[in-house]
Structure formats: structure tokens, C-alpha cells
């Protein structure tokens, strides 16, 4: 079938695949350089900041922490204790029990002396109805806590109810099983306070992986490096994404996503665009794109900020099954968001959002796994037709592998020179070892999950979310 593959056709395919690889590598290098300069500037500027003034001031902007919970009985009491231990002054915590089938609500009622109360809800966004109602604590120590029990509608629906209930200016949307550091809110609110000639509509921070760390009473006591190789690879992946990626996109005002694990939003803008989309599995990315498009259409100067400090720790998948399910969902969320907002793409009306951010995500996030698998198919055809120049092929594979390893090692060095979270003896060496194994042990499964996500999006519409079984950070 392929025995007489024309040389001209081979040259065209070579140009496409090698050209894409060169463009991808070049973009990573450029983003890393920008991130490095921005991180240095951030650390210099913030070395003089007195965060105590922000957290102790009675006029600090009001913030609601909104945390959806579904079948979180295992850790819900500890998780809420963590959220209530924040050092910020003017905030409350809204836990949305999204139709849990376990005893999540009962544990909260017992642990925090909750009683049902009459509570006025401003239903600006349609959501699933309440089930047992709104609860407040009879203990003054927990006066900041509000617990809402509603029928199950999914994470986005729960967050929308939180937006309806919140009476504060800003909302911090967080996964209830995440560990929020005590100074997280005052660091996240800082860009909103500093901005003068442009409106900050949202801010995100660094997410770190808590597997194997020692956590007690909602506090991070000790950082350990996990033995699980899947988790180790994800640590490195998160470091690359947050240290050498998002800092650069923040500088370019090109962020299209804030991690659903923890993000701070201007509630007014979030409500004006209609809240979270309940019909997508990528609600965290979709709302940012929609808020940005709205600001562009209103012709208001704005930005989405990013804080490079480690502010939130979360549990990562520790099995390939759950890992693939998570990445499958991320792929489907990206496809849905880019498709829904395709009018933005390559559209100068939307400035850098349309001409820089959207094209990058489209080519290097949306299409990258498809092009990679097509490249593997093309290489197989070249082998079958005896058209492989093995010297160049082997050299290309070695260069690609070494670039991935080198990029990871640069990330590790950046971590060591900046926030240096992995301080125990031998952790640096373990990270470097992971840099050599992660492309082999993790990347093939990421590629498979992305391809399965594409297949499921187009041919298996019944899949909505995906399994993410938690074991509990305190027990890792």
C-alpha cells in the first residue's frame, strides 16, 4: 500500500512534523526565559511586602472561600479546619455539600455544632435546589463557617450556588480536599489591591502535590518526596507548568486557565458572565476564557494575575487508572472550551487573547497529542516502506528526550533557587532521577489519556466527569 511513497510527500510530512516540534520547543524556551525574569522580579519586589498589614487591616477586601464537597466524609472535618485557620481577617468559608450520599453533612454538623438557619439567597444564577438547607455554627469560634446542603448538580453547579450565597466582593473557589496555606488569601488579594490602570478579574497561585506529606489538624507539617513513580512524575510536571509556564503567560496577560484547585475571582464579573458553565467538565478554564472575552468586548483594561508562591497543596492520582481518567477530563474540558469560544480564535478584536493565547492553546494543547500520534503513525509507515534515515531518526529521538530532561532539570534548579520546598537530604537527587524517568513512565499515559479524551468527546457523550478516588492527604 505504501511501497511507492513519493519523495515529495515524505518531504512535506517531514517539514510538518519537524516544524511543529521546532515551534513547540522554541515556545517552551521563550516562556521559560520570560518566567525566569518575572520570578526574579516578583521575589525582589515582594521581599519588602508586609503581609501582616494586609491580613490585620479591618478594611481588607472581603473574601468568601467556596468549597464544593461530594462524598468527602473521609477528610471533610480536617479540610474545613484547614480553611478556617487562614490568617486573613475579612473572610468566610462556604461549604457546598453537593448531594453527598455518605455522611459528609452529618460529620460537619457534629464537628462544628451546626444548626439549620433561615438564610437569604440571591438566586442570580439558576442552580439545583436546596436539600436540607443552610447551616451555621452555634460556636462563636466557627462563626465564619456556612454549610449549604443541596441536591447534586456537579462542581460547577455547587460553585454557582456559592456565588449566589456569598455577600463578599471576592470569591476564592477551591477544592475542599486541598490544603490552603495560612497566608494564601493575603498573597492572592495583593494583585487586586495593587492594580490601578487595569482591573484584575482573577488570580491563581501555584498548586503543589501533597502525597506523602505529613498533615495534621489542617496544617502542613512536613514535606516528603513520595515513593510512587506516577506521583513523582506529576510533581515534576506541576513544577514545569507553574514555574516555567504560567508566570510567563501572566506577564503576557495570556492566561487561559486558573487551576480549579484554587483561584480568586472578582465576584461581580463572575456573576455578570453567568457564573460557571454546568455543561462542561472544564469549568475552571471555561469561566476564565468567558470572563476575558467579556472584558475584551466591554473594552475594559484588565488582567488575570498569577502568584508564583506555593499557596495550595492537593492530592494527586497515584494509580494509572485514576491518572488517565483525570487527564481524559482535562482534554475534554480543553476541547469544549476552545470550541465554545472559537469566535475568539485568531480574532484581532480580542487582542492578545485571540491572536496569542487562543492559538497557542489550540496548537500546543489541543492539537499536540493528535500531531504526536500522527507522527508515530507516519514513522511506522516510513519503517514499513524502508524510507527511514536511521541516523537522523535516532538523533531526533535522542535530542527530543534530552531536551525534555534538560527542561525538567532547569525547572528543578529554578525551584531550588526560589521556593526550595523539597529541603530534605536526597530530594534534589530524587527529582533529577525523576526527570530521566518521567518521559518514559508518565508521558505515554498522558498521550493515551489525551487521545481517549478526544475519542470520548466525539463518540462517548455519556462520560461526564471521571473517577478521582481520594485516599486522604493526612494518611499518605
Automatic annotation (TrEMBL):
Family annotation (SUPFAM superfamilies): Nucleotide-diphospho-sugar transferases
Superkingdom of source: Bacteria
Keyword terms of this UniProt record: Glycosyltransferase, Membrane, Transferase, Transmembrane, Transmembrane helix
Oxidoreductase among keywords: no
Transmembrane segments: 12-37, 358-384, 390-414
Keyword Transferase: yes
InterPro entries (alphabetical): Nucleotide-diphossugar_trans (IPR029044)
Recorded GO MF terms: glycosyltransferase activity
Matches recorded under Pfam families: Glyco_tranf_2_3
Family: Belongs to the glycosyltransferase 2 family.
This protein's name: Glycosyl transferase family 2
Protein's organism: Flavobacterium commune
Amino acid at each position: 500500500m505504501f511501497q511507492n511513497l513519493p519523495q515529495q510527500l515524505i518531504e512535506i510530512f517531514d517539514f510538518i512534523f519537524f516544524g511543529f516540534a521546532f515551534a513547540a520547543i522554541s515556545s517552551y524556551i521563550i516562556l521559560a526565559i520570560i518566567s525566569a525574569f518575572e520570578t526574579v522580579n516578583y521575589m525582589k519586589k515582594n521581599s519588602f511586602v508586609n503581609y501582616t498589614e494586609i491580613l490585620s487591616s479591618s478594611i481588607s477586601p472581603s473574601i468568601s472561600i467556596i468549597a464544593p464537597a461530594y462524598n468527602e466524609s473521609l477528610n471533610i472535618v480536617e479540610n474545613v479546619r484547614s480553611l478556617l485557620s487562614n490568617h486573613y481577617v475579612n473572610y468566610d468559608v462556604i461549604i457546598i455539600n453537593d448531594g453527598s450520599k455518605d455522611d459528609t453533612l452529618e460529620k460537619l454538623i457534629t464537628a462544628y455544632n451546626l444548626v439549620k438557619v433561615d438564610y437569604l439567597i440571591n438566586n442570580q444564577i439558576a442552580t439545583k435546589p436546596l436539600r436540607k438547607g443552610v447551616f451555621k455554627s452555634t460556636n462563636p469560634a466557627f462563626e465564619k463557617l456556612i454549610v449549604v446542603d443541596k441536591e447534586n448538580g456537579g462542581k460547577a453547579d455547587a460553585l454557582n450556588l456559592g456565588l449566589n450565597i456569598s455577600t463578599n466582593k471576592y470569591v476564592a473557589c477551591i477544592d475542599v480536599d486541598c490544603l490552603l496555606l495560612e497566608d494564601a488569601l493575603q498573597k492572592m488579594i495583593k494583585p487586586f489591591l495593587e492594580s490601578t490602570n487595569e482591573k484584575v478579574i482573577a488570580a491563581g497561585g501555584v498548586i503543589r502535590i501533597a502525597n506523602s506529606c505529613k498533615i495534621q489538624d489542617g496544617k502542613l507539617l512536613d514535606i516528603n518526596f513520595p515513593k510512587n513513580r506516577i506521583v513523582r512524575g506529576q510533581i515534576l510536571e506541576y513544577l514545569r507548568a507553574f514555574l516555567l509556564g504560567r508566570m510567563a503567560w501572566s506577564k503576557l496577560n495570556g492566561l487561559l486557565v486558573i487551576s480549579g484547585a484554587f483561584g480568586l475571582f472578582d465576584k461581580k464579573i463572575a456573576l455578570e458572565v453567568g457564573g460557571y458553565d454546568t455543561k462542561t467538565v472544564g469549568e475552571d478554564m471555561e469561566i476564565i476564557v468567558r470572563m476575558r472575552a467579556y472584558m475584551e468586548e466591554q473594552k475594559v483594561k484588565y488582567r488575570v494575575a498569577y502568584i508564583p508562591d506555593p499557596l495550595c497543596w492537593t492530592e494527586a492520582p497515584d494509580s494509572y487508572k485514576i491518572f488517565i481518567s483525570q487527564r481524559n477530563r482535562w482534554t475534554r474540558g480543553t476541547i469544549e472550551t476552545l470550541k465554545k469560544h472559537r469566535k475568539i480564535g485568531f480574532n484581532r478584536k480580542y487582542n492578545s487573547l485571540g491572536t496569542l493565547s487562543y492559538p497557542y492553546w489550540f496548537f500546543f494543547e489541543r492539537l499536540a497529542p493528535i500531531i504526536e500520534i500522527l507522527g508515530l503513525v507516519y514513522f511506522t509507515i516510513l519503517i514499513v516502506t524502508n524510507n527511514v534515515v536511521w541516523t537522523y531518526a535516532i538523533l531526533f529521538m535522542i535530542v527530543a528526550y534530552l531536551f525534555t530532561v534538560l527542561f525538567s532539570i532547569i525547572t528543578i534548579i529554578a525551584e531550588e533557587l526560589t521556593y526550595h520546598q523539597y529541603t530534605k537530604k536526597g530530594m534534589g537527587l530524587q527529582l533529577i532521577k525523576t526527570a530521566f524517568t518521567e518521559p518514559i513512565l508518565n508521558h505515554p499515559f498522558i498521550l493515551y489519556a489525551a487521545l481517549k479524551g478526544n475519542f470520548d468527546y466525539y463518540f462517548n457523550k455519556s462520560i461526564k466527569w471521571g473517577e478521582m478516588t481520594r485516599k486522604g492527604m493526612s494518611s499518605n
